[in-house]
UniProtKB/TrEMBL annotation:
Entry GO MF terms: DNA binding; DNA-binding transcription factor activity
Membrane-spanning intervals of the chain: none
PROSITE patterns: HTH_MARR_1, HTH_MARR_2
Domain HTH marR-type: 1-79
Pfam family, one: MarR
Protein name: MarR family transcriptional regulator
Keywords: DNA-binding, Transcription, Transcription regulation
Ranges annotated as biased composition (Basic and acidic residues): 83-94
Chain residue ranges for the region called Disordered: 83-137
InterPro entries: HTH_MarR-typ, Tscrpt_reg_MarR-type_CS, WH-like_DNA-bd_sf, WH_DNA-bd_sf
Lineage: Bacteria, Bacillati, Bacillota, Bacilli, Lactobacillales
SMART domains for the chain: HTH_MARR (SM00347)
C-alpha cells in the first residue's frame, strides 16, 4: 500500500471508533499492531456488497457510453456544488450514503458495474469522482 503511516493510523482510528476493527499489540514484537475485523465490520462489508449488487441492477440498463456520460455530468455537478458550498465539504452528513465505498475504490478491490451513489462533491468513495466510479471494467 502506498499510504503514509499517519494516514493509516487516522484511518484505523476511525474504523476502531466505529467498532469495525480492533487493534492489539503483538506479544512477540511490540513494534507491530495486529488489526482484526469485528463482527460489526464483517456485517458492514456484507451490507456494502448488497448495495453494490442493488446499484448494479439499477444501472444495468445503461450502456458503457451512457454510464460514462452520466459520470461526466455528475463530475460537473459535484464540481459546481463544491464551488458553491465549500463550507459543507467537511460536514459529516455531506456525501453520506450507503456504507462508505463507491465503485472502483473499494477496500477489497471490487470494481462494480453500475453507477456509484452520489453523495458530496468528493473525488473519493464517499461521493462521485475519479476514485468513486469505474464504469463496467
Amino acid at each position: 500500500m502506498d499510504i503514509r503511516p499517519s494516514s493509516m493510523t487516522e484511518l484505523l482510528s476511525k474504523l476502531e471508533e466505529r467498532g469495525l476493527i480492533t487493534r492489539t499489540p503483538d506479544e512477540s514484537d511490540k513494534r507491530v499492531t495486529n488489526v482484526s475485523i469485528t463482527d460489526d465490520g464483517k456485517k458492514a462489508i456484507e451490507d456494502d456488497d448488497s448495495t453494490d449488487d442493488m446499484l448494479d441492477q439499477i444501472f444495468a440498463g445503461l450502456s458503457d457510453d451512457e454510464l460514462a456520460q452520466l459520470s461526466e455530468l455528475m463530475d460537473k455537478l459535484n464540481t459546481s456544488l463544491k464551488e458553491k458550498l465549500p463550507d459543507h465539504e467537511d460536514d459529516p452528513h455531506w456525501g453520506h450514503r450507503f456504507p462508505h465505498r463507491g465503485f472502483g475504490g473499494g477496500p477489497h478491490g471490487h470494481h462494480g458495474h453500475g453507477m456509484p451513489p452520489f453523495g458530496g462533491p468528493h473525488g473519493d468513495p464517499h461521493g462521485h469522482g475519479p476514485m468513486g466510479f469505474s464504469p463496467k471494467d
